[in-house]
Amino acid sequence: MRTLNQLIKRNVKLFFKDKGMFFTSLITPVILLVLYVTFLKNVYQDAFLSSVPDGFDISDKLINGFVGGQLISSILAVSCVTVAFCSNMLMVQDKVNGSIKDLTIAPVKRSALAMSYYFATLISTLVICFTATGICLAYVAATGWYMSVSDVVLLFMDVFLLVMFGTALSSIINFFLNTQGQMSAVGTIVSSGYGFICGAYMPISQFSDGLQKVISFLPGTYATSLVRNHSMNGVYKEMLHQGIPDEFVDAIKDSVDCNLYFFDNKVQIETMYLILGVTIALLIAIYIVLNVLKSKKSK
C-alpha cells in the first residue's frame, strides 16, 4: 500500500509539473465554454423557443437558464472523458522515455504500478473537472440560475462517475499504446469523435432511427443524459410552474436527450446510473486482467 501511495504521488506530481499536459487539460473546458457560447447559444435558444407552445411568454432568464444548462452539460460530458485521456498519457510517456523500465526493475509489483496510473489519473482529472464544473456553474449563475442544492450535488456526482468512466476507458486504450504518434492519434480521435457519439455536440434525437438504436448501446450516452438532466432539472420545474403543459415539457426533454429511449422504452434515471456503474466496474476489471496477463507473460 505504501508503494502504491508513493507511485500515485509521483504520477500526480509529474502531471501537474508538466505544464503542457496540465494547462492543455485545464483550458479545454474553458475553450469549449467560449466556443459553445459564441457559436451554439443562439442555435440552442432558437430550438428551445420553437418547441414552446404559442401563447406562453417565456422570460429571458428562463431561456438563458435552459440554454446554459444545455451548454454546460455538453461541456462536462465531453471534458470528463477527454481530460481523462490527456491526464492518462503519463502511462504512455513512461513507455516512450523509458521510465517504465526503471520502475519495473525496481521491487515494484506490476499491479501496484498499473493501479497507480489509474488512481493518479482519477485524482488529476477530478481536480480539473471539478474546477471546470465550478466555472460552468458560475456561468449559469450569471445568466439564469434555477438549480437546487440537490441538483448541484447530483451534478458533481455525475462528474465524478464520468471521470471514473473516462479514466477506466483511457487506461484500457493507453495500455496498448507505445509511441508518441499513437498517443497523439488517439487523443485527436477521442477529442473529435466522443462528443458526437455520446450526444453532447448534437442531441441523439436528431440522428436517424438506426443510428439512435446503435448509440443507445453506448454507456457514454446515458452519462451525458444524467449530466443534462441534473443541469436542467430546475428549468423544467419552472416551466411547469409557469403553466406550460406536461406534454410540451416532455417533448422538450425528448429533443435534448433528457429522456432517452432504448428501442422505444424510456430509460429511467436509476437505470442510467446502473448502466454507468456496471460499465465502470467492467472496464476496471478488464484493465486489471490485462495487467495480470502481461505480468504473467513477462515472467
Please, could you describe this protein's structure?
It is built from 12 helices and 2 strands; from the N terminus they run H-H-H-H-H-H-H-H-H-H-H-E-E-H. It is mostly helical and 299 residues long. The chain has a two-stranded antiparallel ribbon. A hairpin with a 2-residue loop joins strand 1 and strand 2. Helix 3 runs antiparallel to helix 6. The protein is elongated and about 75 Å long.
Highlighted features:
299 residues, 2 strands
Topology:
Blueprint lengths: L1 H16 L1 H33 L8 H28 L1 H8 L2 H7 L4 H34 L5 H27 L4 H18 L11 H7 L3 H23 L4 H10 L4 E3 L2 E3 L1 H30 L1
Helix pairs in contact: 1-6, 2-3, 2-6, 3-6, 3-7, 3-8, 3-10, 6-7, 6-12, 7-10, 7-12, 10-12
Give the count of helical stretches: 12
* Amino- and carboxy-terminal Cα gap: 23 Å
Overall 3D shape? elongated
How many strand segments?
Answer: 2
Gyration radius over CA: 21 Å
Strand content: under 5%
Give a short account of the largest sheet.
2 strands, antiparallel
Biggest β-sheet: strands ordered side by side in the sheet:
1-2
What integer is the average pLDDT?
A: 85
Q: Could you state the order of secondary-structure elements as H and E?
A: HHHHHHHHHHHEEH
Structural category is: mainly alpha
Task: Name the poorly predicted regions.
Answer: none
What's the helical proportion of residues?
over 70%
Briefly summarize what is shown.
This protein has twelve helices and two strands. The chain has about 300 residues and is mainly alpha-helical.
